Amino acid sequence: MDGTFSELVSAAVKAAAGRESALTDGRRSVPFAALAGHVASLDRLFAARGISPGAVLALEATSSVAGALTLLAVLARGLSVVLSPPDRGAPRSALPSCCRHRVTVRSELTDGARIALDDPESFLDISENAAFDPPPGAESLASGKVLLRTSGSIGTPKLVVYSHGRLLANALLVVGRLRLAADDRVLLPVPLTHMFGLGAGFLPALAVGASIDLVEGANLPRYVEHERRFEPTVAFLTPALCFMIARQKSAPSHYRHIVVAGDKLQPATFEAAERRFRRVVNLYGCTELGVISAADPAAAGAGRDTTAGAPLPGVEVRIEAPRDAADAAPGAGSIACRHPYGFDGYASGDGGPWTGDPPPSDGFHRPRDLVRVHAGGALEVLGREDHSVNRDGRLVLLADVERAMESLPGVERAVTVLGEDGLRGRRISAFCVARDGHALDGDAIRAACAAVLPAYAIPDQVRLTASVPLLPSGKIDRRALAALAAPNDPARGASA
């Protein structure tokens, strides 16, 4: 492969030769042999609308066949693109001033669009940006760049810039570790506009010619329906979705393994997922570097439940002291990574030069995750540096608090966030989801924490919630929960 996305499409068609590989979403299906024709049709529409290399466009893509074809056409044309999911049910966000056009993929699911894949205008809205005014420095984004938004699960989202070649090489590095092959059937209920869905799932599966089923707006009923129809061998899941699906009693025999990235699975969820999906592969990565490490699906033995495997070939890892030395856990520290195909850098919200912290001179990116290295180089991610706190002079990892609370009778899910400073350190607020058929009380849960947590780690307040808010990426929206736990919230719930 020569490192271009047009070559990727050709490679996918070649790899799928003699097989019935297809790109599907449950409503529409395109055989791989027809991919190039659809991409060419979209390319003609872009040319007719004045969309050409040398300008940046904003693409709002659904996780659908129409969305995937549009994304492939944009990349194959060598365009620079800011990727984001569509703003369904919300006022349209302002375009970055560096974007000349906005391209939005219509949705059959939410818009009721009537789509014909051989007529791109039936599923695309293309408009010019009236506020187009590239800031100084935006010329560096003129062609061959992909800009991804960080998840914003804790900090402020940024635009992460990749060259096309590095993004593609980054994705191809994943193929061997995840053991993807042309006869796989890959289910993707994760957004194409985020690095997990795009760089770990979609592009690697496409490269080997594996059939791909895209799930738009994934939830439990929708996933189960796609699973029944598509019979996947591999699926890519967020922890939240894995948590819901693992509770199902059925155990389909067609799975080889699932890949899970994001927050660490609790032991009970990991065990349930292994029973249902045959094998769980924990993956660790970030938007800036793509996949950093992943377990080997063929490897047996202990450690798969706690670690995310060894770093991918060529990825360098070192463990450093956290910014706050008091945040060090025994045998652990803050991870620093250098990836052979990592991101080019950050851009500001309007596409201009990044004015925040400059990239480190040593080429190592620091995701601010606390990590412990096991035998063989396997990485155990303990949590984020900014998802831990010192209380009474002791380090508290909020992931440990959540695991302990989920061991309490009737607690299905626990999520913790940090609040304002108190006498013992920053306050800890916990949000709990009850198991089916259980009635819980916040004060009672907090009292029960004394049996599973040291006194300094017991949350200052416990609130009950029917569900946990999620970001479009599928990660927990901790910023939303922190806002709910703020002192001026009139419905704070049980509190110390």
Question: Secondary-structure blueprint of this entry?
Answer:
Elements: H1 5-15, E1 22-24, E2 29-31, H2 35-48, E3 56-60, H3 65-76, E4 80-84, E5 99-105, E6 124-128, E7 145-149, E8 159-163, H4 164-178, E9 185-188, H5 195-207, E10 211-214, H6 220-230, E11 234-237, H7 239-245, E12 257-261, H8 267-277, E13 280-286, E14 290-294, E15 316-320, E16 332-338, E17 345-347, E18 369-373, E19 379-384, E20 388-391, E21 394-397, H9 398-406, E22 411-422, E23 425-434, H10 442-448, E24 461-464, H11 478-484, E25 494-495
> CA-to-CA gap between the ends?
60 Å
Rounded to the nearest angstrom, the radius of gyration is 23 Å
- Contiguous uncertain segments of 5+ residues: 489-496
Domains (count): 2
Q: What is the oligomeric state here?
A: single chain
Q: Write the CATH fold name of the largest domain.
A: Rossmann fold
Percent strand:
25-35%
* Strand count: 25
Mean residue pLDDT: 88
Largest β-sheet summary: 8 strands, mixed
CATH top-level class of the largest domain:
Alpha Beta
CA-based shape: globular
| Derived structural class | alpha/beta
Annotation field: number of helices = 11
Percentage of residues in helical conformation:
10-25%
CATH superfamily of the largest domain: ANL, N-terminal domain
CATH architecture designation of the largest domain: 3-Layer(aba) Sandwich
Give the strand order, joined by hyphens, for the main sheet: 2-1-10-9-11-12-13-14
